[in-house]
């Protein structure tokens, strides 16, 4: 028998771009296909969180339902088209819509994965600036908007993010975070952060977890405080009060670094500790002990995450977390929160690109971080008038499942004249799309995440190499946005002359047979590196496993502050005013018939709404449940495994109950991200879906007035037994 020559295998060192943990990975490629992904243990910075999602990334690349060519809707089915056909049609229809209704008739929604591409957001913004639309929506109002609002007010830039110095910390106060599962990342990245925190704990550090659920992180903590959902602000304000009342503050930082300490003092003087304790439903003595222990620890930090942000007082909770760090002297000190310069000054660049202020057409609300609140989108689509949204691009997002009141948004999307989705698969939010455009997966993309380099907890750089080519006609988003801009004959980035330049480089590339000459993201990567602090392109390429290019520095914070007076503003007027409002509100009380608050948790194998369908993930069952406290279940006659109906004024879902003592009484957990269908746009087979979409129960309004975030994690619901 003739011997078959084995296909050579090749290993590509790169990093996973599913979440900001950015784990270094080794991708084994054979005959142009991914055959294995493992942790790159030679990566000096970021492999320690490597998980099953990264390990199975090749299965999304090869997904049988992957969109690999532009698909155009014809009646109830989709037919394949070329990119030229797609762009010509979309450009013509958008131009007509702008002629009739103005540029704001075109809207965009950008989801979380767009943030892990170096080119997606940049080129999308280039297109939006070209057409001049203000109707921009993004995932921020269901994620981290509160952090941007706080960073702008306190540090002078919405991108100013202090990073955690985990390895020197003696006291971790983790509020609304479950790093054992989510990895230590939320607009900062501390690779292996949870394991490193546990290592500190073995050396004597204390970990306190504040969470209505006894989570995986709470299980390992020294103390778990099962707070009432949505009331972190009351706990944190109580701590600030104890610290000032008992003179535990860091005198130096309170006078030299912070501005507004006296306003803060008078705010807490007027607050009553028993009242605050009753609001967050924690014993007053626990708040006092926590404040004293926190202030006394040599190195300490508060971190606040999505458990704080997805509520109506999320901005105040976030702010008070930063306040605690500042007034106890944790900023820029070992064991606290540092400023990491990265290699590119993203704040400076962001300040140059400041987006114009805009008020929404119907509610007159301003933008947050350049975007309007997702809750406003349905009415902006369905309400007639100039500026009514008639066309929309959904870019790497699934807002019908990940955002509030999905049924209302879904109905609105159905009314658009043009819906374009650019994604890997057709999911719930893309159900009514007129065009489905095939995006490239990160394994098919080169990325240099220069603009988020200051979010790593040490000076770190890695060039994210592509491992394989995109299938069929799949393309990176930037190409679509640039081509669409040219086809619409609008100046890219809103700057005259750019289109001519782009065309000239493309022409030259054709003439010289050197495609890399054509303008694209690699131009920008090169420019950013050229303008960086002392990093050469060559040196980056010489470190395929990633490169820690310096030591963790302290003493950079003061210089980096973007406030005019180079001080941290600890008492911004609008935050103090909002706190007075909260203090004047009656204590939280469940409305009649809706006695529970709806919580959710993440799982190690899930990524928001979009990996649950991958085989091999969730070996113990692809489903979500209504997890109900044992005492509550007994009172309602609910046994483990019973079918229950969970309902609110916005909607209802039916699912199996799980009786548990993990949630505090009065809290029902239904994990988010489930119940999103994956369609088969070519074959027309039945959609794949697991679990139910619990965000159907969330009313989009009211929102936190400062961050425009709805109460995704504290909405009141009712629970009823349906049957065994
Ligand atoms: N109740 C509740 N709701 C929540 C949360 C919660 O904790 N509780 N968490 C919130 C948070 S933190 C977030 S970030 C949001 C997420 O909200 P979204 O970002 O709107 O939604 P995702 O579910 O992340 O969907 C991302 C989509 O991007 C696609 N995709 C993946 N990679 C790429 C790519 O490279 N290019 C393109 N074009 N598409 C890609 C996926 O297929 C998927 O369809 O959900 C929020 N919703
Ligand atoms: N495996 C996995 N990892 C992920 C993701 C994922 O989907 N899966 N998503 C990534 C993304 S986009 C993000 S933004 C990060 C998020 O990272 P985290 O914010 O750490 O996310 P969660 O694990 O949802 O933890 C939030 C915790 O807040 C608690 N909580 C809810 N309401 C309250 C409240 O009112 N007060 C307090 N104190 N706690 C509350 C919840 O019970 C939950 O345990 O994770 C990232 N990492
Ligand atoms: S999804 Fe998993 S492997 Fe990928 S970066 Fe996040 S933690 Fe790392
Ligand atoms: Mo997120």
Give descriptors for this structure:
16% strand; 26 strands; alpha/beta; molybdenum; Dimethylsulfoxide Reductase, domain 2; iron-sulfur; 3 domains; binds ligand MGD; 724 residues; 26 helices; binds iron/sulfur cluster; Rossmann fold; 7-stranded mixed β-sheet; 6-stranded mixed barrel; Mopterin_OxRdtase; MoPterin_dinucl-bd_dom; Barwin-like endoglucanases; binds molybdenum atom
CATH architecture of the largest domain: 3-Layer(aba) Sandwich
Topology-level CATH name of the largest domain:
Rossmann fold
Number of strands: 26
* Poorly predicted sequence stretches spanning 5 or more consecutive residues: none
User: Major β-sheet, in short?
Assistant: 7 strands, mixed
Query: Domains counted in the coordinates: how many?
Result: 3
What strand order characterises the main sheet? Answer: 5-4-17-16-15-6-7
Radius of gyration: 25 Å
From the spread of the alpha carbons, the general shape counts as: globular
Strand content: 15-25%
Q: Briefly note the structural class of the backbone.
A: alpha/beta
- Each distinct ligand: ligand MGD, iron/sulfur cluster, molybdenum atom
Helix content: 25-40%
The pLDDT mean sits at: 96
